[in-house]
Amino acid sequence: MKRTPKAVMTWMGSAMIIAGAQASAFAQVSDVRLSGAIAVPSVSAAAVSVALGAPALLSAPAAVAAPSLGAVTAAAAPVALPASADVPAAASVAAAPSAATFSSAQTIARDAAPASGETGGGARAAAALGAFFDHSAASADEPAAVPASGAAAATPAESALGRLYPRVVVILDTLDKPAQEGDKLVTYIETLADKGVRVVFATARPEKGENSAESVLISKLKNRSGNPVIVASYNGARIAAHNSKAANPKPLIPDQLPFAEATVKRFGEIAQGVQKKLTGGSAKIATFGRPNLEAPYIFGGEIPTGVEPAAWAAAFNRALKSAGLSYKVETGNDAEGKAIFLTQASSLKLNAGRLFNAIYAAAPDLDPEKGGAGALKPGQVLVLGDPAKAPGFLSSLPGRGYFIHGVTGSGSIEQALGAVLGLSRFEQVAVNKYQLREYLDWLERRQAYGPSTGAAANRGKSSSRWRNPNATGWHQMAYYRGIVMKETMSRLYHLMKNEAYDEASLDAAVSLLEKLWRYPETSGLRLPEELKLARQTSGFKSTQKAGLEVAKRWLKNYYHRHFPDYPRNLNEKVVGRLLRLARDGDSVTLNYASPYTGRAYKVFVRPDRTELWEDDRGYILVGHVYRTGREPYQTQFDESVEVNLVGRALLEGDAQKRADGRWYVNGEPDPRVMVVFHYNTRDLQSVQTPAEVESHTPEVTALIEKRAADKDYQKWVEQKEKDNERARANLKRTVTREANAKAKKKAAADPR
């Protein structure tokens, strides 16, 4: 097994995050020779209860030890709810007669026979035969999402076709209160385990003790010899199965290393030195470790009375840096309200590789390296977690195709598990492509600059297009250029489609661009209010000429790439291929649904131009998008969710999916899909089959879920809206002020 690179952990209030990767800090201190022992008074386990009250899951896209998984989702198999579970009334239907016995066949024949006054093939016959075939389908030999050996026997209260369950459910700890025996949360976890679903509970809390994995949830669950719940405590430093009452259960995989003894001693020395510097005293600092001070994953101590926690943390961290230790302490309060400081072993982070290796140790049949039909696939895994607390873990899952559902507390975990069992429902989520693109851009900035700079609210700075609310509108230029270029290209292709070739030549195109740029309203181009205001400011006007030149360069580059000998072959390239332009209709509505929670998602997408090509292999649906901003790398483009959304929109808008599950265009099956993004200097394209397009469904639904559950992002959006309102008001004041100044200047220049 690969050893996970160590990383520096920090405590932010009650949440832990990764501060950064580093070389082995244990190696740095292992050679230090310290004489004498430090007397360390013990502190009760309650000392860290508050700091661990709502732990975040530490994660980073580090090296993943688990093998790469495929992206194929297994088909459903019938699985029953236990008789004790609450089942909606709609599901309480009588079981259909089985075809396995002659008596069942007689029953079906009797029920299907026409009643007095009824002709053959009536409603009773249809109902009886429908029930029979529904029941037969439920016993078909199909690959199951949950192994048949783990499924409970069907009950009359169950739907004839059963439900599709994930094979593995990973619950990332967002519990805001301890579970109680008889809670729905406990009942739902037990029910899933009864059905053969592997349930994993991953938490930053200790394994046992106060405010631990055991106290908040695991102690309320049954000890199971078969299919036990897997507990990843200390953010995966220790992973064991809940299958015994042993005080120290055997881990499924070797534990990660805690703090080295020399490191613990050095921490104690630093604590004494900081105390002497800040207070002048020499009393022993009361320190503690979890699970113990001899081999702690968490080290901390009490802050001396009268010392400000912030001052203590700053002095301690400076001392750590001077000693060459890449750790960081944070402060908090224990259960008794005493101020404490904490730090965590650098090797400790929730690592997807360790988690899956533990799952494979508990269930070897799921291990993809061993092959076989039972190997686990990403589409058979459901992850419940808070994307704001575990972004690294969610982004480092091995392979693609995991179903992710956002949860932010005990209630939302309970609701999600209830939805998996068919006992609760979620409202439909509707977004458009641009909202998802904005979220992806925000995630990229947060990954590049860290959580503290990922949201404008955290920086206290505006994050909207108006970075400075007092600015005069010059930074609106890129936004304006994108709108004008899309309208220009739409009008040019409309002219080409109608064979008005002279009006769409390069010279005519440049003239059209200049007209739209300088006189958008009179040219029929509708602008948002903020752009109307921005165009009246001196800041915008001072950069308008340079912005127009950039737009002209984009247009000329496009013509040189696509129409080098305009208008030759234009009829074949445009007229014979063009299906529609964005101006011709509404957005295409894409409908997605999670196979496990049943949640429905609706995404609105509108390609700038749609075409139909044909070659010797068949039809190709082509979607074009014009981009005037930063150009991505090809790999970034290929992996973009936005590219997949455009590809899906081509299928939904211009192809037909028939009963055989295949897509058709003009009666021909399996059209290919090509998505082309046009940038200033080049075109990026991706060609996919319908199966490849549809295989990205989990990624799309996961992105929507993460966006809906990401509280940091929601705060950023809220702050952005406030900034936008301020910016609009400032722009109005700027326009009024400049207009008044212009009028005064004109009046002063008039001799009359």
Percent strand equals: 15-25%
List the strand order in the largest sheet.
Answer: 6-5-4-3-11-12
Mean pLDDT: 77
- Poorly predicted segments: 1-50, 58-144, 147-161, 452-472
Number of helices: 23
Reading off the top of the CATH hierarchy, the class of the largest domain is best stated as Alpha Beta
**Radius of gyration, CA atoms, in whole angstroms:** 32 Å
Biggest sheet descriptor: 6 strands, mixed
**Form type:** globular
How many structural units, i.e. domains? 5
Question: Which structural class fits the helix and strand makeup?
Answer: alpha/beta
The CATH topology name of the largest domain reads Lambda Exonuclease, Chain A
Question: How many distinct beta strands?
Answer: 23
Amino- and carboxy-terminal Cα gap: 90 Å
Which bin fits the share of residues in helices? 25-40%
CATH architectural type of the largest domain = Alpha-Beta Complex
Summarize the structure.
With 752 residues, the chain is α/β, with parallel strands linked by helices. It contains 23 helices and 23 strands. Helix 4 (184-194) packs parallel to helix 10 (410-420), helix 6 (261-279) packs across helix 7 and helix 14 (477-497) packs across helix 15.
